[in-house]
Amino acid sequence: xxxxxxRFSRCIATAVTAAALATPAFALDTVKFMxxxxxxxxxxQTARVLGKALIEANAAKSTTFENKGGAGGTLxxxxxxxxxxxxxxxxxxxxxxxxxxxxxxxxxITLKDVTPIARLFTEYNVIAVRKESEFKTLEDLLKVFKDxxxxxxxxxxxxxxxxxIGIAELAAKMGVPVNKVNYVAFAGGGEVVAQAxxxxxxxxxGGYAELGQYIRNGQFRVLAIGxxxxxxxxxxxxxxxxxxxxxxxxxxxxYGAANxxxxxxxxxxxxxxxxxxxKVWKENIDTNKWSPNxxxxxxxxxxxxxxHVRLRAMLVEVGLVSK
Length: 323
Prior knowledge:
alpha/beta; D-Maltodextrin-Binding Protein, domain 2; 10-stranded mixed sheet; 11 helices
């Protein structure tokens, strides 16, 4: 009886060990995402796709999402920095728009107060009009813009965003004074889409992911894209093709909480990188026409420092900040 019991115990132990090996060792628990913009906007889309990818990659058990828009994302940044110190299960979505907001607003809390994890992709802006628009081509639009610049209302992200800088830079290339650009800033993608579809805004500019569903169903017509070269699946010329040496693109990435240990930072980074290799992530890269360019850790931090220098120079050039 004793031998039988021992054999039974060994079987139980073997079964438990096998079950443990079959269960994924999650790097993260419930990941709490801060998307520092409105629901449906670029920050929010990135957070939700990355959340699904983390789960699919067995890198996190579950996810939650909080949206805190305003001031180009710096309000969400401040809340995140203050409420998550030392928490390895917290992620903040960031992007070039947040860098320009920091340069303009000079908030007390900046990206120096949180931990760089990874750059994920770049999304290039489209310039689009609603299907009823009188502008059938980019040439149609820019002819009127050059002759009567204030008659063209451009809708996009917050003041000083990549959307705003891009249109101001295009105007400068055309010889249109920056103070004549009628740019209308919106805090979230949903609001600007509604205004453009309703005809209150003549032209909309933004990332393809936010506008893609409206483009695919014919509500918006793309006149151009601000990519260095044409993007497969987007039937539109680049601005460079049309003679304007302008690139309009917004990278996005994630930061972790302040005060992470080196081990925690490594685990978070590895979890995010694993997520970028998942099927759901790759499908969304294709659907949203994102250009993947993963960069992690201190190299990502250095890249962001360089972006502060580059984007501040652009803000000065187009007259949005003083020297």
